[in-house]
Amino acid sequence: MMDDLYHFIGGKRVKGASGRFGEVTNPATGDVCARVPLADGPDLNAAIASAKDAFPGWAATPPLRRARVMFRFKELIEANMDALCAAVTQEHGKVLDDARGSLIRGLEVVEFACGIPHLLKGEYAENVGTGVDSFSLRQPIGICAGITPFNFPVMVPMWMFPLAVAAGNCFILKPSEKVPSAPLMLAELASEAGLPDGVLNVVNGDSTTVNGILAAPEIGAISFVGSTNVAEHVYRTGTDAGKRVQALGGAKNHMVVMPDADIDLAVDGLMGAAYGSAGERCMAISVAVAVGDAGDRLVEKMASRVRDLKIGVGTDGDSEMGPLVTKEHRDRVEAYVDGGVAAGAELVVDGRGFRPKGSEAGFFTGASLFDRVTTDMDIYRDEIFGPVLCVVRADDFEGALKIVNDHQYGNGTAIFTQSGDAAHAFTQGVHAGMVGINVPIPVPMAFMSFGGWKRSLFGDHHIHGAEGVRFYTRLKTVTSRWPQSMTRGAEFIMPTAK
To answer: Virtual CA dihedral for 428, 429, 431, 433, nearest 10 degrees?
Structure first.
């Protein structure tokens, strides 16, 4: 019996008015496990109306009381961690340990949001003029929206809405229709924690829903994570409509391996960074830039490790990598491998056609490893978003740095070296938003900020951390003077300090 899911609007489960549904599939088996309603105008309008009604009271709620809701929300997430991880694995396919790790990284943002009374503090300047004081304060925008991808059903939503609602906003979340169950669970837990009805709404949908969010005049800010083409559409359409937008797009993250690097450490890093979560991460390492004689050593050790990678159902404790999210995406990834072979790259390990015994109907592919990839090949230029690692050779550090900097994406990058000089030069010279030094996946902690450069980010603000607080608030500066200190009579010049 297939379950019918729902929207979460005004603190209640809502079946939806559109009559349109999408299928939610278990990628490990290929079975359809649920139907999710796809919102049209009436569903989105209901969520907007609910948020609009809730906003005045929630914005007026003292930040300390809003923080206490976040503390209770944190406790409920911890108590329901197993159920949330199971939902992620069932609908996305990633192994349970990876699902748990991503949930913990989202939980860290909730913990950061618990400090919202401190984070919202403004500045005060006394006597900017005789008898005149000035102070600043941060106030919520109103109704904000988040549009999130399939690869992190709990982490990416929690990069957004905890800070937004802790800052006094109301929020409409549009998760990926491929992985709707865990975001709905989060919304219900937030309601149980004491979040008033209408402060957090979940509206499931597709591109129709996204375009409705972009067009809605009541929504003042939009946060997006997804592919670059859609990110650019969201940014341009949203800003044209006068909204504040942060849109995180695609990536092609490079890891430079210097000749002096600890090769075993680099291989360990690459295995997890390239093939963890089946490569379906915006921070996955998909290109290794091997400098000088590091190339042969790196490829030799990588090849044996890739062949031994344990691929299977995400609930199997022995699995290190699960399936891809859909059959269509699996076929797309394998088509890129076909293209790499045709372009002349050396396919050291071929993952095409791998199907685990007993799970042949699932959306599995094996891990693939290419060597001697060149920068004009599609497998190098495009974000494949699958378990495909490309090794590019560089003669020296300067050549490696140029390879990284010439790519259209600048999300994350890393260098493995034992040289402080090389690490410093790389940190200073690389054109990317997040950098790892002997750290393969340099995802910043919740109290820092996450975001890329170039075509990996559209907008002026990174996500979570202090940047997130700034994105979800507007700055207001007040200049005050009281009658006993006022000079009588009109003044027709620009006020200056006296």
So the answer is: -10
